[in-house]
Amino acid sequence: MAKEPNIYSVKKINEYIQGLLSQEGIFQNVYIRGEIGTLREWNYGIIYFNLKEDDYIISCSYNPKFGKPLKEAIKDGMEVVVRGSIEGQPKKGTYQLKALEITKTDNIGQSQEELMKLKLELEELGMFDPQYKVPIPIDVKTVGVVTSETGAVINDIINVTKRRNPYTNIVLAPSTVSSNNAVPSIVSGIRRLEEYGVDVIIVGRGGGSKEDLWVYNNREVAEAVFNCRVPIISAVGHDIDYTILDLVADQRAATPSQAAEIAVFDLGERIGRINGYEQSLNSKMKSKIRIARTVLDSKRVQLEAKNPITRIEKSKDRMFLLNERLTKAMDKVLSRKRHELEIYIEKLKGLSPLDKLSQGYSYVSHDGKTLTSIENIKTGDSIEVYVKDGRVSATVNDKLSIDYK
Fold it and tell me: Which of 128, 232, 233, 273 is the most buried (most CB within 10 A)?
């Protein structure tokens, strides 16, 4: 009959490991050499970092209250020798090197040295040159994303994209974002999205340690990004994190959410801007129409003023006015002349032969001419004598000159 195995609780096994670390003197005052990575400082000057060598790391912390003062500030990529004690954390199932003394060596960390060498090589090849950067299209319809299919990154990109423009398509090329398989996975994702025909590609992952982000400092990834015909936005880690991918990419975003904001235009803002343009255009068109109408009215007035029909009508009106004035003037003149005539008639009445005839006088003519002197007639001539009520024909028998003075 098989013997029942000893089954330990999580708490028991973690406490057992902690006891082993505490009992073994080798872990209480140990010197470890390695390269600093993922350095960050917290409150009260406590520093957390990793010591790494190749693919191996150990978590460390340094509290200035208990440790020896640092001779100089430590940085990522610096090679140091750390003296301290390795302690377990039973509740987390992890262990950590509590640093008491940190001494800088004269060497550059291996990974840092390799990174600097790779940067120099890629820079000499022109991969960082702005002239090769492809601008991000302003009307992106399809966004490709190279990241893990789980986690916050793809969700953040989806949320931002749908908020800015719900009509934008998102195509995910799932990839590993850390570990040894990450590089071929990322490279494959970029090439598949390029063949698919997306408008822009976002390569990204969330925050993490420098070791987690190290796959984005890879030559193969850099070459895939540089050779891609589709513009690429890098969105790796947080704003403080910088990788070779960021230098090669056509544009860098501090976070995946910012990458989505760069790639996808804001439909609401675009519509608002178009509406603003429409209002401005309508306003300007109305203004131009108003000015054109004013000019047209002015030209119409000028044209009407030069129109022969209009001029004839105005001439007719003026002629009628002048005719009316002339008629009134003529009536006035005739009235005055009639009055003067009446006066002259009254005056002539006293001189009229007819009036004289009615008073007993007569009128004598000879050969149709008034006879005014005996010198104009001789004996035997015929004469006409006009009296009040008729005419008398007579023959001159005798004539006698008389002086009535």
Answer: 232
Nearest to 201 by CA among 224, 234, 177, 176: 234
Mean pLDDT of the chain: 84
Residues 225 and 248: beta-carbon distance below 8 Å: yes
Residues 6 or more apart in contact with residue 73 via CB below 8 angstroms: none
Using CA atoms, how far apart are residues 152 and 159, in angstroms rounded to an integer?
10
Question: DSSP per residue over 8-50, as a string?
Answer: --HHHHHHHHHHHHHH-GGGTSEEEEEEEEEEEE-GGG-EEEE
Q: What is the DSSP letter of 401?
A: -
pLDDT per residue as tens digits for the range 210-259: 767 788 888 999 999 999 999 999 998 766 667 889 999 999 998 999 99
d(CA 363, CA 392) in angstroms, rounded, equals 10
Helix (H, G, I), strand (E, B) or coil at 124: helix
Pair 193, 163: CB distance under 8 Å: no
- Please tell me the chain's helix, strand, coil percentages from 3-state DSSP, rounded to the nearest 5: 45, 25, 30
Q: Is residue 351 over pLDDT 70?
A: no
CA distance linking residue 115 with residue 238, whole number of Å:
19
Which helix (H) or strand (E) is 268 found in, with range?
A: helix 267-306
Q: Does the pLDDT value for residue 354 go beyond 70?
A: no
For 84-141, what is each residue's pLDDT tens digit? 888 887 778 888 888 888 888 776 666 777 778 888 888 888 999 999 999 999 999 9
Beta strands in 127-254 (DSSP E): 142-147, 169-174, 200-205, 232-236, 251-252
Among residues 117, 47, 45, 98, the alpha carbon closest in space to that of 75 is found at 47
**Model pLDDT, residue 1:** 53
81: enclosing H helix or E strand: strand 78-89
Q: What is the C-alpha radius of gyration for the chain, rounded to an integer number of angstroms?
A: 63
